[in-house]
C-alpha cells in the first residue's frame, strides 16, 4: 500500500546525503525554512507526527492561543475594514483599480453601485499560512496571502478530518447556526432547521477560475441544502457560494442587489482570487494568487500573533519616469531592516521597540554598497520575489541563481515600477513545503461595529508540495489537529492572562516543565534540573513557585489541581510528609571528572593569561572581512593584513605541543577544515572576502580529534575564534560612517577560545586513561561574527549532513571523519562577563530534541557538582576569608584570588524568550538536527563590552569566567564518558 498523508513526505530519506545537497547560506542572506519532522542530520526524531494518524498535523494549544487566534483577529480587523470601505464605494486599502479590472468576483457593476444595505460582510476567506523562522530564531506562523488553492476549497475541506472522512454533521450544523445567529442576529430557535431557515449552498466545478480550485466533493450532509439554477429562490434567505459574482445565475444577482438575499461570503471578500494580473503572473510564479491579499495588510513582526511580511510596489525614479500610479497598489518603497544582533529581547516587537530609518527597498534587496549595508545589513534578494509593472516575473529569490539576481538588480537600476514581496520559506518536511489553508471566518458585529471571529469554525486543511516540482494541482493533503492535552490546555486557560513583566512568564514556565517531562520520556525530572528550567528570581525555589502559581491564576482551585500535575513531573527534593514515599530520590551528584584540574588558582591564572594573550597581543584584525578597503578604515588600521591566519596557526601550534606533551602524537589528530567564502553578491570592499575570490587565502575551522574507545561517536566542544566590528567606533547608533575595526574580543570570544585551549590536556589525559567512551572534538569555528555570519558553523554542519567531512592534517594528508556520528555539541560563546544586574547566572541553552536536553542535563549536573564542591574548596587557606572577586581595575593586573562562586546555570530551551541560542553558531547546528547546547554568560544586551571597544580584559570577571569554563569542560567530559 502506498504511503499516506505525512508518511508520503518522509519517503526517500535520507534526502541530503552527498556533496552539494544541503547548502547553508548565511541567515542574513537567506533565512531558511524551519525543518520539522526528521532533521537533516540523522533524521531520527519525528515528534510532530502520530503513527496512528497519518493525515494529522498537530497544532499545539500555545500556537492556537498565542499566535493563531490573535493573528486571525488581526487579519479580520484589517481585511474586513477594507471590505467595508469597498462595499460602501470608498477607497479600500490595498485594493487598486488594477485589481478590480476584469475581476469576476467584484465586477464594475458592484464597484460602482456598492454593496446592498443588508450586507454584513461575512468572510469565509481562506488564507495560506505556514511556520517560518525569523532572525531571532523564533519559528512563527506567517501569512503568505490568500489560499493558492482557490476561494472555496479550504472551507469545504474543513468539514473533513481525512480523505472521505467527514466531521460529524451535528458539528457542521451547529457551526452554521452560530454563524447566522452572530452575523445576522437570527434567533437560535429559528435556526433549528437550517433548510427551513432559508440556507442553501451553490457549488459547481464549472465556475472554478482554475481547474484545481474545484471545491468538490462537498460533505454528504450538504445534499438537502444544495441549490441549482433550475430551482426557485423562494424561501432562500442565505446562499453560500464561492462562485464569482459575474457567473452567478441572473436571478441570484438580482435578488442580492435588491436586498432580498444574503450571499455568504461577501462577494467582495473573494476579489483577491479574481485579480487578472496576478492570475497572469501565475504562469511564471505558481503562488502568485497569494499576493493580492497581502497588499491590504501592514507588515507585522510582533512575536504574539501571525507574522505578516512586507509587500507592495516600489518605484525607482529615472529620467522622464512618471510618479507611481495608484492603480497598482500600495507603494512601499522603504523597509526597516532587522537583524539578530539587535539589542532587543526576543519577546519584544523590534519594529515598535527600536527607532530606525527606513532603507530603500531596492537597496535592501540588491545593494552591496557599504553605505547601504551599514554594519549589519546584507542584500535580501534571496528572501524576495519581484515582478515588473506588466506582471512579468523578474526574480524568484529562493530559487534564483546569482546571475538572475544580478540581472534583477540591473533591471531595477534602470528605473520603473516593480511589485515585490518579502518571502521567508515555509516549513518543510524532507523535500516538501507545507501550507495551512485556513478559512478566516469573520463578520462585522452589529453591536460593536468591529470585526469578530466565529469561534470553532472549520480549520481548512494543509497542502504539501515538492520543493523540486511545485505542482499546485497535486498536493499531499493533511488536516490540522488542534491538540487538547488536558494539562497544556489548563496551562493556557489558567495562565494566559497572567501578565508578569515582558511576557507570559508563568505560562511559559509551566509549559517548559510539561514539554521537558514529555520530551524526556514522561519520567520525573530531577528537582534541581526542573528548578533551573524555570525563569524565576534566584532566591525563589521550585516549591515557592508552586505555592505562588494558584494565587496568580484565573481560577485558584483549578490551578491547585494543575500544580498537583506539575509536581508529578518533578522528583521530590527530599522525602517529607508532603512527598509521596513511592517517589524515588535521585542520588546526590557523582564525583567530578575534571575539577581537580580546573578548580585551582593555576587554572585561573592560565585562563586569564590565555585570554590576555589572544586579545592584547599581536592578533588585531580578527574579523573575516578584514581588512575593510575604505579610506576611513584604512586610516585607522594598526596593520593592514588580516590576522586570522596567524591566529589560526598559533592555535594549531598550541595543540601540537599539548598533544606531544601528553604523548598522544599519532593518536590525537590536529587539523583544519579549509573552504572558500562564497556569497551571491560581490563585496569587493571586504578585504578577506576579496582575497578568497583571488585564491590568496581561505577560511578554515580548526579541529582537534581526541580519541575515545568508540571511534564512531563524538562530542564536540566548540567556540568561534573571530571577533566582531566595534559598533561605537563605527557610530552604529548615530548613523555610521566610522571605521570598521575588529574588537579585541576578550569576552567575545577569546573567553571561550581559552576554555578550549585549557581543556585539551584534560581531555587528552582522560583519553590516555581509557575513560572516554567517544571521541572529543575541539573545534574552533571561524566566521561567527558579521558579515561572515556563522560561516564556519555552516560549513561544518553542511559537511556533517552531506557526509563529506574531511580534515587536513599537518602532513597535508586528509582524514575522513564522516563515519563518526556527532552525538552532541557544546558551543561556548561569551562566558566571562558577570552580569552586573543579575549576577552569578549563566545560560545552558539546549537546541531542539531529546538528545539536546540530555546534553543540557549533563551541563546542569556539572554545575551541581561545582556548587556542591565550592564550599569545601573555599575553606582552603588560600581562599578562606577572601572577599568576592573584582574585575581588574586596569585590565592588565591579574585579579586577586577570590572564593569560587556559586553559579546558577539557567536551562533555557530554544522556545524560551531568554535563550540566546539564536545569536550564536549553535542555532545552525540545532536547525540541522545536530544536538546542541550553548554555554553563555547571562547576556546583558545593553552593557558595554559587547561588539565595541570595551570588549577588553577590564570586562573579564576572572572567578566567574573560570568557573563557567570549568563547568563546560566537566559537561563535555561527562557526555563523552557516558555509556552508549
Structural topology:
Layout: H1 6-9, E1 56-59, H2 61-87, H3 97-100, H4 108-113, E2 123-133, E3 139-146, H5 153-157, E4 160-162, E5 165-166, H6 169-184, E6 199-202, E7 238-241, H7 250-257, E8 262-264, H8 276-281, H9 291-294, E9 311-316, E10 334-335, H10 350-353, E11 359-360, H11 361-366, H12 370-373, E12 384-388, E13 393-396, H13 402-413, E14 416-422, E15 428-429, E16 432-444, E17 451-453, E18 461-466, E19 476-482, H14 486-495, H15 505-519, H16 527-533, H17 542-548, H18 556-568, H19 595-598, H20 601-616, H21 631-636, H22 644-661, E20 669-675, H23 687-693, E21 699-706, E22 710-720, H24 727-730, H25 750-768, E23 774-781, H26 791-802, E24 806-809, E25 814-816, E26 821-828, E27 841-846, H27 850-874, E28 904-907, H28 922-928, E29 932-937, H29 958-977
Parallel strand pairs: 1-19, 6-7, 7-8, 22-23, 22-26, 26-29, 27-28
Antiparallel strand pairs: 2-3, 2-16, 4-5, 9-14, 10-11, 12-13, 12-14, 15-16, 16-17, 16-18, 18-19, 20-21, 20-24, 21-23, 24-25, 27-29
Helix pairs in contact: 14-15, 14-18, 20-25, 22-25, 25-29, 26-28, 27-29
Report how far the terminal alpha carbons are from each other. 36 Å
CATH architecture of the largest domain: 3-Layer(aba) Sandwich
What low-confidence regions span 5 or more consecutive residues with pLDDT below 50?
A: 574-585
Structural class given helices, strands, pairing? Answer: alpha+beta
Could you estimate the helical fraction of the residues in percent? 25-40%
CATH-defined superfamily of the largest domain: Zn peptidases
Strand order of the largest sheet: 25-24-20-21-23-22-26-29-27-28
Radius of gyration (CA) equals: 30 Å
Q: Tell me the fraction of residues in β-strands, as a range.
A: 15-25%
Biggest β-sheet description? 10 strands, mixed
Reported by name, the CATH topology of the largest domain is Aminopeptidase
Total number of strands: 29
Let me know the average pLDDT.
93
Q: Kindly provide the name of the CATH class of the largest domain.
A: Alpha Beta
The number of domains: 4
- The best one-word shape is globular
Amino acid at each position: 500500500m502506498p504511503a499516506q498523508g505525512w508518511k508520503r513526505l518522509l519517503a526517500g530519506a535520507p534526502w541530503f546525503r552527498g556533496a552539494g545537497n544541503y547548502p547553508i547560506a548565511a541567515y542574513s542572506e537567506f533565512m531558511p525554512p524551519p525543518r520539522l519532522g526528521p532533521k537533516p542530520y540523522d533524521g531520527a526524531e519525528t515528534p510532530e507526527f502520530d503513527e496512528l494518524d497519518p493525515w494529522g498535523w498537530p497544532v499545539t494549544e500555545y500556537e492556537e492561543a498565542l499566535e493563531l487566534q490573535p493573528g486571525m483577529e488581526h487579519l479580520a480587523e484589517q481585511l474586513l475594514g477594507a471590505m467595508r470601505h469597498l462595499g460602501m464605494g470608498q477607497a479600500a486599502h490595498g485594493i487598486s483599480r488594477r485589481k478590480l479590472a476584469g475581476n469576476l468576483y467584484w465586477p464594475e457593476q458592484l464597484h460602482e453601485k456598492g454593496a446592498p444595505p443588508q450586507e454584513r460582510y461575512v468572510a469565509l476567506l481562506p488564507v495560506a499560512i505556514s511556520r517560518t523562522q525569523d532572525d531571532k530564531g523564533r519559528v512563527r506562523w506567517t501569512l503568505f496571502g490568500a489560499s493558492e488553492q482557490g476561494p472555496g476549497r479550504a472551507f469545504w475541506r474543513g468539514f473533513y478530518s481525512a480523505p472521505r472522512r467527514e466531521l460529524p454533521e451535528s458539528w457542521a450544523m451547529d457551526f452554521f447556526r452560530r454563524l447566522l445567529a452572530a452575523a445576522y442576529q437570527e434567533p437560535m430557535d429559528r435556526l433549528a432547521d437550517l433548510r427551513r431557515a432559508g440556507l442553501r449552498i451553490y457549488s459547481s466545478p464549472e465556475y472554478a477560475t482554475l481547474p484545481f480550485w474545484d471545491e468538490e466533493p462537498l460533505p454528504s450532509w450538504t445534499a438537502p441544502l444544495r441549490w441549482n439554477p433550475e430551482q426557485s429562490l423562494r424561501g432562500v434567505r442565505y446562499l453560500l457560494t464561492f462562485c464569482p459574482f459575474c457567473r452567478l445565475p441572473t436571478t441570484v444577482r438580482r435578488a442580492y442587489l435588491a436586498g432580498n438575499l444574503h450571499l455568504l461570503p461577501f462577494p467582495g471578500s473573494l476579489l483577491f482570487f479574481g485579480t487578472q494580473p496576478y492570475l497572469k503572473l501565475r504562469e511564471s510564479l505558481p503562488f502568485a494568487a497569494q499576493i493580492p491579499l497581502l497588499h491590504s495588510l501592514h507588515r507585522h513582526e510582533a512575536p504574539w500573533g501571525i507574522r505578516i511580511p512586507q509587500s507592495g510596489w516600489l518605484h525607482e525614479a529615472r529620467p522622464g519616469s512618471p510618479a507611481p500610479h495608484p492603480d497598482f497598489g500600495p507603494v512601499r518603497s522603504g523597509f526597516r531592516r532587522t537583524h539578530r544582533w539587535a539589542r532587543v529581547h526576543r519577546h519584544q516587537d523590534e519594529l515598535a521597540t527600536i527607532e530606525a530609518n527606513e532603507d530603500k527597498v531596492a537597496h535592501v534587496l540588491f545593494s552591496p554598497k557599504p553605505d547601504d549595508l551599514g554594519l549589519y545589513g546584507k542584500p535580501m534578494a534571496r528572501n524576495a520575489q519581484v515582478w515588473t509593472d506588466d506582471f512579468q516575473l523578474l526574480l524568484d529569490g529562493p530559487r534564483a541563481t546569482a546571475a538572475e539576481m544580478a540581472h534583477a538588480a540591473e533591471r531595477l537600476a534602470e528605473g520603473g515600477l516593480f511589485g515585490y514581496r518579502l518571502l521567508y520559506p515555509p516549513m518543510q518536511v524532507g523535500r516538501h513545503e507545507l501550507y495551512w489553508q485556513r478559512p478566516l471566518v469573520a463578520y462585522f458585529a452589529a453591536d460593536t461595529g468591529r470585526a469578530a471571529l466565529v469561534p470553532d469554525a472549520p480549520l481548512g486543511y494543509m497542502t504539501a508540495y515538492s520543493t523540486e516540482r511545485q505542482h499546485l494541482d497535486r498536493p499531499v493533503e493533511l488536516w490540522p489537529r488542534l491538540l487538547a492535552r488536558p494539562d497544556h490546555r489548563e496551562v493556557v486557560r489558567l495562565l494566559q492572562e497572567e501578565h508578569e513583566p515582558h511576557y507570559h512568564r508563568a505560562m511559559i514556565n509551566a509549559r517548559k516543565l510539561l514539554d521537558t517531562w514529555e520530551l524526556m520520556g514522561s519520567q520525573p525530572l530531577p528537582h534541581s534540573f526542573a528548578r533551573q528550567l524555570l525563569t524565576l528570581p534566584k532566591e525563589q525555589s521550585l516549591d515557592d513557585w508552586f505555592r505562588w502559581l494558584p494565587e496568580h491564576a484565573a481560577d485558584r482551585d483549578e490551578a491547585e489541581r494543575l500544580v498537583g500535575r506539575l509536581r508529578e513531573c518533578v522528583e521530590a527534593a527530599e522525602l517529607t510528609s508532603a512527598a509521596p514515599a513511592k517517589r524515588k530520590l535521585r542520588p546526590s551528584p557523582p564525583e567530578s571528572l575534571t575539577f581537580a584540574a580546573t578548580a585551582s588558582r593555576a587554572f585561573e591564572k592560565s585562563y586569564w593569561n590565555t585570554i590576555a594573550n589572544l586579545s592584547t597581543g599581536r592578533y588585531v584584525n580578527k574579523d573575516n572581512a578584514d581588512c575593510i578597503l575604505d579610506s576611513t578604515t584604512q586610516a585607522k588600521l594598526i596593520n593592514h593584513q588580516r590576522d586570522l591566519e596567524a591566529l589560526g596557526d598559533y592555535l594549531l601550534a598550541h595543540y601540537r605541543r599539548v598533544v606531544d606533551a601528553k604523548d598522544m602524537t599519532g593518536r590525537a589528530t590536529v587539523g583544519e577544515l579549509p573552504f572558500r567564502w562564497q556569497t551571491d553578491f560581490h563585496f569587493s570592499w571586504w578585504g578577506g572576502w576579496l582575497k578568497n575570490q583571488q585564491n590568496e587565502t581561505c577560511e578554515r575551522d580548526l579541529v582537534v580529534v581526541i580519541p575515545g574507545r568508540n571511534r564512531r561517536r563524538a562530542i564536540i566542544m566548540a567556540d568561534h575564534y573571530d571577533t566582531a566590528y566595534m559598533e561605537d567606533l563605527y557610530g552604529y547608533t548615530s548613523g555610521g560612517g566610522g571605521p570598521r575595526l575588529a574588537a579585541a574580543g576578550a569576552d567575545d570570544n577569546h573567553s571561550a577560545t581559552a576554555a578550549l585551549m585549557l581543556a585539551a590536556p584534560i581531555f587528552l589525559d582522560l583519553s590516555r586513561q581509557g575513560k572516554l567512551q567517544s571521541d572529543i572534538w575541539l573545534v574552533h569555528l571561524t566566521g561567527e561574527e558579521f558579515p561572515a555570519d556563522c560561516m564556519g558553523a555552516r560549513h561544518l554542519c553542511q559537511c556533517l549532513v552531506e557526509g563529506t567531512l574531511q580534515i587536513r592534517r599537518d602532513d597535508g594528508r586528509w582524514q575522513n571523519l564522516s563515519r563518526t556520528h556527532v552525538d552532541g555539541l557544546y558551543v561556548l560563546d561569551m562566558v566571562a562577563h558577570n552580569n552586573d544586574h543579575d549576577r552569578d547566572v549563566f545560560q545552558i541553552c539546549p537546541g531542539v530534541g531529546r538528545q539536546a536536553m540530555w546534553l543540557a542535563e549533563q551541563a546542569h549536573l556539572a554545575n551541581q557538582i561545582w556548587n556542591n564542591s565550592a564550599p569545601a574548596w573555599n575553606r582552603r587557606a588560600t581562599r578562606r576569608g577572601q572577599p568576592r572577586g573584582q574585575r581588574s581595575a586596569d585590565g592588565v593586573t591579574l585579579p586577586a584570588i577570590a572564593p569560587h562562586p556559586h553559579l546558577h546555570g539557567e536551562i533555557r530551551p530554544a522556545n524560551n524568550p531568554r535563550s540566546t541560542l539564536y545569536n550564536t553558531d549553535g542555532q545552525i547546528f540545532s536547525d540541522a538536527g545536530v544536538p546542541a547546547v550553548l554555554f553563555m554568560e547571562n547576556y546583558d544586551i545593553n552593557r558595554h563590552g559587547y561588539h565595541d571597544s570595551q570588549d577588553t580584559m577590564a570586562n573579564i570577571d576572572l572567578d566567574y569566567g573560570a568557573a563557567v569554563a570549568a563547568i563546560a569542560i566537566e559537561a563535555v567530559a561527562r557526555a563523552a564518558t557516558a555509556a552508549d
